[in-house]
Design brief:
The structure holds 2 protein chains of 2 kinds.
Chain A: E1 12-16, H1 20-32, E2 36-40, H2 43-49, E3 52-54, E4 59-61, E5 71-75, H3 83-92, E6 101-105, H4 110-118, E7 123-126, H5 131-134, H6 185-191
Helix pairs in contact in A: 2-3
Chain B: H1 2-19, H2 25-32, H3 41-65, H4 71-88, H5 91-105, H6 109-140, E1 143-147, E2 150-157, E3 165-170
Antiparallel strand pairs in B: 1-2, 2-3
Helix pairs in contact in B: 1-6, 3-4, 3-6, 4-5, 5-6
Classes of the chains: A alpha/beta, B mainly alpha.
């Protein structure tokens, strides 16, 4: 019988965010679209889930075929490994580089957004992420058995939420212009350490 | 009917939180994610927020005791608390967080300490309002009604003071909302 059956496995999204609330939110948003979701709280855990073998040197991946990941969506600012660093590790890996990566951030910094897109991120979502954002993910999904050379890459040209900062002013109405005031733009591009130059462990409150 | 009165009171309480600027559109986004299979989603998220906030605020308190102040650390901590607050739609809290961060950037110790008191005040006020709101909602509880041969659970949404919105979720269909609205 020459019938091709389309796989009915739900698409699997790996969500990475150190914030408990944002993790719960993104998981719920993704499940609304019937995606299968795995949520982890750090870049390292994400890499381990993706099959990282050599934790010390961040090398050698052995992805678990049972747990094929079709898309990674990650927060930018995380202690330890930023979302950008995670993106880079994924794109540098032979076995992982075809997995689409989406970055989320509460800060609207065009230089940061550009850097991520240049490094291979498919899309950049401004937090808080909404249903309408997750709705845009459909074209980015990869499925190993579906990728063909004829497949047209469908990239959303709607960056209205990611790059809506023509006036450089207060875009989201929260009282600031979204730009990190700590160091100048060039320094930002160089290291963008503003998120995690120190790993601040949030100590538990003793009740 | 007493029940209708309670519904109106709850709707009013909710509307007031928006009108007075305590909550913004993001809270509505959370409500949109609540349905038959996630009937307590909003309250779950808010409860998580209380828990995380306790830690953030405690850490900020401690960091503000240190001499000299580590503005970078303070900014980082507040960035995280602001993020959580933004995610639940805590509008006034978010604004005060921004003021705090501005003072951090300006390395203004007095400004930081003063604004932090405002942050805590707004957080406490919002928390009280939300706790009262959820408690009222719980007292009324979900409404169950039969629809043809299937059981339908209506979750009450208090979107306006003028009418009661019923989200009727049919258990056999994918997520669909039928809101009965009157304006």
């Amino acid at each position: 019988m020459g019938v091709i059956s389309i796989s009915e496995t739900p698409l699997h999204v790996l969500a990475v965010d150190d914030s408990n609330i944002d993790r719960k939110l993104i998981e719920r948003l993704l499940k609304t679209f019937s995606y299968h979701v795995t949520a982890v709280d750090s870049g390292i855990k994400a890499l381990e889930f993706l099959g990282l073998q050599d934790v010390e040197n961040f090398q050698s991946f052995s992805p678990n075929p049972e747990e094929e990941v079709n898309l990674v969506i990650t927060d930018y600012c995380m202690p330890g490994m930023t979302g950008f660093e995670l993106l880079r590790k994924i794109k540098e890996s032979k076995s992982l580089k075809d997995i689409p990566v989406v970055i989320m951030s509460s800060d609207n910094i065009p230089a940061r957004i550009n850097r991520c897109l240049e490094e291979g991120a498919e899309e950049f979502f401004l937090k808080p992420v909404r249903l309408s954002d997750v709705d845009k993910l459909k074209p980015y999904f990869s499925k190993n058995d579906r990728k063909t050379t004829d497949e047209e890459e469908c990239v959303s040209s709607d960056r209205s939420r990611a790059m809506d900062d023509d006036d450089g002013g207060d875009v989201d109405g929260d009282g600031d212009d979204g730009v990190e005031a700590w160091s100048d733009e060039n320094e930002q591009i160089e290291k963008d350490q503003s998120c995690h130059h120190k790993m601040f462990k949030i100590e538990d409150v003793v009740p | 009917m007493e029940r209708n009165q309670m519904h109106r009171q709850i709707a009013n309480t909710r509307k007031l939180m928006f009108d007075q600027g305590y909550l913004d559109e993001q809270f509505i986004q959370l409500e949109e994610l609540q349905d038959g299979s996630n009937p307590n989603f909003v309250e779950e998220v808010v409860t998580l927020y209380y828990r995380d906030s306790a830690r953030f605020l405690s850490n900020l308190d401690q960091a503000l005791e240190k001499r000299p102040l580590d503005f970078s650390k303070l900014d980082n901590l507040m960035h995280q608390f602001k993020g959580s607050s933004t995610s639940i739609g805590a509008k006034k809290v978010k604004t005060e967080c921004t003021h705090f961060r501005n003072y951090c950037n300006a390395r203004n110790a007095e400004g930081c300490k003063r604004t932090f008191q405002n942050v805590k005040k707004e957080y406490t006020t919002l928390r009280k309002k939300l706790e009262a709101y959820f408690q009222m909602s719980r007292q009324v509880g979900p409404v169950e009604t039969a629809y043809a041969s299937s059981v339908v659970v209506c979750t009450i949404r208090y979107d306006t003071i003028h009418s009661l919105h019923l989200n009727i979720i049919h258990s056999n269909l994918p997520l669909r909302r039928c809101a009965a609205r009157s304006h």
